[in-house]
Design brief:
single chain; alpha/beta; 7-stranded parallel β-sheet; 3-stranded mixed β-sheet; globular; binds NADP nicotinamide-adenine-dinucleotide phosphate
Length: 316
């Protein structure tokens, strides 16, 4: 046990970090130990990780000293930020800066940073195909993560940049599941036209991150994109219908209509889906299914994810 390399995981009680902790602990030949970082070691989720064998350590990324302390002695660190907890791109960039400084101070040897594209490199603010949001962003929760990459590079933190994909779990937890229309028929709504969406089981993000840590120093400085499937809205609806045993349609609304849905973050997500749609070949190309499978041989396809999770999808 003593020679196991510790991987400290921010967001360990959440989707991405939880997948990584479970991947480490499930590996019988592991050379790694999992240190789960949480704000509350007594929560049910934190206790569940402790019961699996994780070392649970309290820290809050808003408190840099607590994070630096939680990273002491760790070989690796997984960093994810919490945009949907506060909806602030500036705060998200600050979270990344704090994590980069803490990793540097603690001498972490390998960071995997969960990031996304700064979409302004494809859609400059002057491009009116989609509105500029919060004064200087196109897709705030993407742009902030992409902009925050430099927090790691500028400090020389040994980092792998992990480009994640749309969680299929959004169909369960983010209100994106099939809903009944005025005709009483179930349909999913995406402003993607006929373009393919790079999606993934949230659990597989952490599993792929574990594959990156196992490969080690050769991955430092690299950007790795992952997805479990590239599917059109039509293909997703057909797969959902098959899994649920009832027809599910695909409601291909315009990005403008999606932005106008009025829920918190609707404009951000409308721009995000438009980015997926308009830059489909770049976006899916940057998330090669073979690369993801080589990091995580158990990578789930959408059909496999549905077989395991269909009973959790609320049908409204
Ligand atoms: N939904 C998608 O399709 C999608 C796709 C790609 C990327 N993302 C990105 O994923 C990120 C969220 O990751 P996730 O889904 O894994 O999160 P999550 O499931 O919501 O969990 C986040 C965890 O982070 C911890 N946390 C929150 N604030 C913290 C703080 N101040 N200090 C320390 N820990 C804190 C919480 O743990 P405790 O309560 O135990 O402290 C929580 O369990 C977002 O930035 C989002 O943009 C989402």
């Amino acid at each position: 046990m003593a020679q196991e390399k510790i991987i400290a995981v921010v967001g360990a009680t959440g989707a991405q970090g939880g997948g990584l902790v479970r991947a480490i602990l499930a590996d019988p030949n592991r050379g790694f130990a999992a240190r789960a970082i949480t704000r509350d070691a007594r929560s049910d989720k934190a206790r569940a990780l402790a019961n699996l064998g994780a070392d649970v350590v309290e820290a809050d990324i808003d408190n840099e000293a607590s994070l630096t302390k939680a990273l002491q002695g760790a070989y690796g660190a997984y960093f994810v930020t919490f945009f949907w907890a506060h909806f602030s791109p500036e705060k998200e960039i600050e979270e990344a800066r704090i994590m980069a400084r803490a990793a540097k101070a603690a001498g972490v040897k390998h960071v995997v940073w969960s990031t996304l594209e700064d979409t302004r490199q494809w859609v400059p603010l002057s491009d009116n195909r989609m509105p500029t949001l919060m004064g200087k962003y196109k897709v705030p929760h993407f742009d902030a993560k992409g902009e925050a990459n430099k927090a790691f590079t500028e400090l020389g933190v040994p980092t792998t940049f992990l480009l994640t994909s749309f969680y299929w779990d959004n169909l369960i937890y983010f209100g994106m599941g099939p809903k009944k229309g005025p005709d009483g028929k179930l349909a999913i709504t995406l402003p993607m036209g006929g373009a393919k969406l790079a999606g993934i089981a949230a659990e597989d993000i952490g599993q792929c991150a574990y594959g990156i840590f196992k490969r080690g120093p050769e991955m430092i400085g690299k950007t790795v994109g992952i997805a479990g499937d590239h599917l059109t809205g039509e293909q997703m609806a057909t797969a959902l219908g098959k899994a649920l045993g009832k027809p599910v349609g695909y409601n291909a609304v315009t990005p403008d209509a999606y932005r106008g849905l009025g829920f918190p973050g609707a404009e951000d997500l409308g721009n995000m889906f438009q980015f997926y749609r308009d830059f489909e070949s770049y976006f899916c190309g940057a998330r090669d299914l073979g690369v993801a499978r080589s990091l995580n041989p158990e990578l789930q396809t959408f059909d496999q994810w549905l077989a395991r999770n269909k009973s959790k999808i609320p049908l409204e």
